[in-house]
Write a structure and sequence with these properties.
alpha/beta, 7-stranded mixed β-sheet, globular, 5-stranded antiparallel β-sheet, Alpha-D-Glucose-1,6-Bisphosphate, Chain A, domain 3, TATA-Binding Protein
Length: 455
């Protein structure tokens, strides 16, 4: 049964995302498809793509029905990772596109990501207009349209593109964990063509995600860690459900945060004078390595929309986020973890060093990342209250994204997640003692603000 009224809570900072079918259903897809079509205008050349979630085919069908109102020239890529959709947009010159996915969220979620000729669409760059049109109740006139199917051709062209950028000597052995998501089979095939020996786990696409949770992190990568360490492999990497982020595991079984993976790419790829974009929650190790390589660090808000905009504006060579999104200028500035896998294999084969050795060469800081539960209705208000109180206390406060407090002994940042009911707390210091003190201080401030706002 289609929803009579859209749940406005599904409209996030840079996408649409919610639980299926209680928040997002076929009626939502119809209305959103109609609104996106009217947002981009009639007769545009547009691509559609979706992930492996069980609700994706139905949402895809109804989105296209609503979208037909704008009489587009539609190319349907079918099931593919988000980086493939982004590649297709650039490679084929589409004017706009949609990716039906909830990224790393649990299996019951789904949603929509959009792009136009200016880039990925966020609340600041057009999603607000799409929301306004989708929730207005305007009648949608569905039309018959000719749809060009371009699934296999797109995957083949993407594979050739990635391989054209690969320089990997033989002998690299890795494990990949697509998590039953969109990179199943595809990543392995492309890597093997480059001469990489690959062990793949959770390699069958399945929207129930039976192998592990859709988000790759320490808690969900236990099998991958064991395969890497027990098999003496060079490294492992876990991809999220739609394949736009990847988390590396080194040969000692250590799970690398995205900012430390970025630092390794910078240390081994950056040319002097080049710029590197990183999000405000990244380790100071990134800044140290960029400066040591003769580069220029550029900080921005968390999120693909902001990183991509900054990379294009600054003509940056590399970019990255703590969450495992890794961006490369020679991949259309896209965040592509398969591209990153290939680049990492190339670095190890040319340097003759293990990933563990490269990790140990990075500047050392004590760091921790925690998730503090806070309902969607209050999480942003908590951060606003903390910003006000800590600024008044005389702390150095940076408000690029959330609140970052810098002291003489380290820093911590608290920012509300745009997609889940949590506040992310990340802290860093030069010693474990100083780190523990910072975390205790930050958590106490969080608890006080939460209670004050009516926990």
């Amino acid at each position: 049964m289609a929803k009579a009224k859209l749940d406005e809570a599904i409209f996030k900072a840079y996408d649409i995302r919610g639980i299926y079918p209680s928040q997002i259903d076929e009626g939502t897809a119809l209305a959103v498809g109609c609104a996106f079509g009217r947002y981009i205008g009639k007769g545009k050349k547009v691509a559609a793509c979706m992930d492996v979630r069980l609700s994706s085919p139905s949402l895809h069908k109804n989105f296209l029905e609503g979208f037909s109102d704008s009489e587009p020239k539609l190319v349907d890529i079918g099931v593919a990772p988000t980086p493939v959709a982004y590649f297709a947009w650039n490679y084929y010159g589409f004017e706009a596109g949609v990716m039906i996915t909830a990224s790393h969220n649990p299996k019951e979620y789904n949603g929509f990501k959009f792009w136009d000729r200016k880039g990925w669409v966020s609340m600041e760059s057009g999603l607000g207009k799409i929301k306004e049109m989708a929730t207005s109740g305007t009648k949608c006139n569905s039309r018959k349209m000719n749809i060009e199917e371009r699934h296999l051709q797109t995957l083949d062209d993407y594979g050739r593109f990635v391989l054209s950028k690969a320089k990997v000597k033989k002998g690299i052995k890795i494990a990949i964990d697509p998590g039953n998501g969109s990179y199943c089979n595809l990543a392995r095939k492309i890597l093997e063509k480059a001469g990489v020996e690959v062990v793949e786990i959770n390699g069958s696409p399945d929207g129930n995600f039976p192998g592990r949770a859709p988000e790759p992190k320490q808690e969900s990568l236990g099998e991958l860690i064991s395969i890497v360490t027990d098999g003496g492999l060079d490294f492992g990497i876990g991809y999220d459900a739609d394949g736009d982020r990847g988390i590396f595991v080194d040969s000692r079984g250590r799970v690398l945060r995205g900012d430390f993976a970025l630092a390794i790419f910078v240390a081994n790829m950056l040319k002097g004078g080049s710029k590197v974009v990183y999000d405000v929650s990244c380790s100071d190790a990134v800044i140290d390595v960029v400066k040591k390589a003769g580069g220029v660090p550029v900080v921005t808000k968390v999120g693909r929309t902001y990183i991509l905009a900054a990379m294009a504006r600054e003509k940056a060579a590399l970019g990255g986020e703590i969450s495992g999104h890794m961006y490369f200028a020679d991949a259309y500035y896209g965040d592509d973890p398969l591209f990153a896998t290939m680049k990492m294999a190339g670095i190890l084969s040319s340097k003759g060093k293990s990933l563990s050795q490269l990790v140990d060469e990075l500047p050392r800081y004590e760091t921790v990342a925690l998730e503090l539960h806070a309902e969607d209705s209050v999480k942003f208000r908590i951060v606003e209250l903390l910003t006000k109180e800590l600024s008044e206390q005389g702390d150095e406060v940076i408000t690029i994204d959330g609140i970052k407090v810098v002291t003489g002994k380290g820093w911590f940042i608290m920012r509300a997640s745009n997609t889940t009911p949590i506040i992310r707390l990340i802290a860093e210091a030069k010693s474990k003692k100083e780190l523990d003190a910072l975390v205790d201080y930050a958590k106490a401030k969080f608890e006080k603000a939460y209670n004050k706002l009516g926990r």
